[in-house]
Amino acid sequence: MAETLIHMYGVSLGATLLLELLMALAFRIRKPKDLLLVVLVNMLTNPAAVLFNWLGTQYLQDIWSIFCQIPIELLVVLAEGCIYDTFKRNTTADIRHPFWFSVAANLFSWGCGVLMG
Amino acid sequence: MRQGINWMQKLCRTGRTGLVRMAVLTVILAAMLPRQVSADLVYEPEDSFYEQHSQECEYENRTYRANGPEGELIVYKSPENSAIQERIENGTNIYISYVYTDNNGITWGIIDDWSQDISGWIPMEYVSEIYDNVYFMKHYAQEIIEEYGDISYISPEENCLAWAYPGARNPTEFYINYNNTDFYPTYYRTFTDECGHVWGLIGYYYGQRDEWICLDAPSASYEELYGDNPPVRELENQETVYSSTDIRPESTQTNKIVIWSCILVAGVVIVTAVLLLLLYSRAKRNEIKNEK
User: Which residue among A27, A47, A114 places its CB closest to the CB of B12?
Assistant: First the structure.
């Protein structure tokens, strides 16, 4: 069971962090504190998103579990965007387009996840 | 790596347009994904349990008849999840692509039938065989001989027919690639039927799998082969005996994963939220200090 949990959460979080950090660099987010923010934001949202998606696949018919992914991902994008925006407005965090960054980073990591199966 | 980042920066430098382009490209690429197949065109079902246990599953590729207790066959979400997906009336033909044996020794089959829109797992104890090539080969095992040969003698003008088993009805056309003389269909088993016709079993040829060819009359129809004296191909009388009438998935493993997942995720979320708050308050404090 430990192996299952590590595979479920560890692999997903690791891959997400790697892909979103790549996207952060592309958005010229270079300061270590800003990159740390990206890491923490994804640690906040990714495990919960993985859990809800997994529960959907376990207890719903496959076609409905796919439809569940969409609102979960939208919530993640919104939550991450709000956190980036809050940091941008009230601190020296240098994230120029917080919501667009959240959209792009999540779309990129989701798309890569789908392609990798 | 540097070039990759420069490319992404260039894409993103155009701002929203670049983002939209990237988003659309990602969605198009993801949408173009075919259903999973492995090498040699073997179909693999899109099922979360199958994906996690594919190494433990065996390819079955066979049609059965629903034969559950109480007149119906219950289709479950997975061998570890008792959520009911469908109830199938006994007597209905169902296609099983893969089978899986759980820790209790119970064999489960996965139904992934697009035509009937049924997807899920069933206990293989609750299905019965239909008369097909697998049953034929079991039933006539003593009379089927290991013998090898090819059917290169069949001319392109002859319409070679393929049969599910000797004596089956409704043959299909067997495709032979006459442009490739190095690779003719070969048979590896032969059978002589009740009327003296000799049949050869082709294991695989250009996607055609387990097909019987009548070697002495490859293009003859059922009527031409058997006339008024067709062979009998029926299941032997099989009384249904269930080892248990209450085979269900055991959800213990799934329940454990749910509980531990919730604890783990709650822990990570709480710790991360605290760290984010600390990061925020520290950054705000530094900003106020800098302003002073």
Answer: A27
Q: Is B253 close to A44, i.e. CB distance below 8 A?
A: no
Nearest to B124 by CA among B102, B145, B139: B102
What average pLDDT does chain B have?
84
- In B32-132, alpha helices (H): 48-52
* Preferred mutation among B22, B37, B112 to probe A, highest tally of A CBs within 10 A: B22
Look at residues B118, B110, B35, B55 and name the one whose alpha carbon lies nearest to residue A117.
B35
Alpha-carbon Rg for chain B in angstroms? 29
Give strand pairing partners of B37. B43
Q: Extract the runs of DSSP E, i.e. beta strands, from B114-217.
A: 118-123, 127-129, 145-150, 161-162, 172-173, 186-192, 198-205, 208-214
Structure-block tokens of residue B47:
């099922």
Q: Residue written as tokens 């199966």? A: A117
Distance, CA of A45 to CA of B286 (rounded, Å): 27
Residues of chain A in contact with residue B78, where contact means CB-CB under 8 angstroms, are 58
- Say what the ipTM of the complex is: 0.89
* Per-residue tokens: B68: 């559950």
Give the one of A43, A57, A90 whose C-beta lies nearest to B48's C-beta.
A57
Phi, psi of B87 (to 5 degrees): -125, 125
pTM listed for this prediction: 0.61
User: What's CA B281's distance to the chain center, in Å?
Assistant: 54
Question: Searching chain B, which residue's CA lies closest to the CA of residue A4?
Answer: B257
Task: Look at the alpha carbons of A72, B111, B96, B32 in this order and tell me if their dihedral is positive or negative.
Answer: negative
Give the H/E segment covering residue B21.
helix B16-31
B20-64 pLDDT per residue, tens = 556 556 655 555 554 444 445 567 888 888 988 999 999 999 999
Structure confidence at residue B37 (pLDDT): 44
Residue B287 touches partner A, C-beta closer than 8 Å: yes
pLDDT of residue B186: 93
Q: Which of B97, B118, B117 is nearest to B109 (CA)?
A: B97
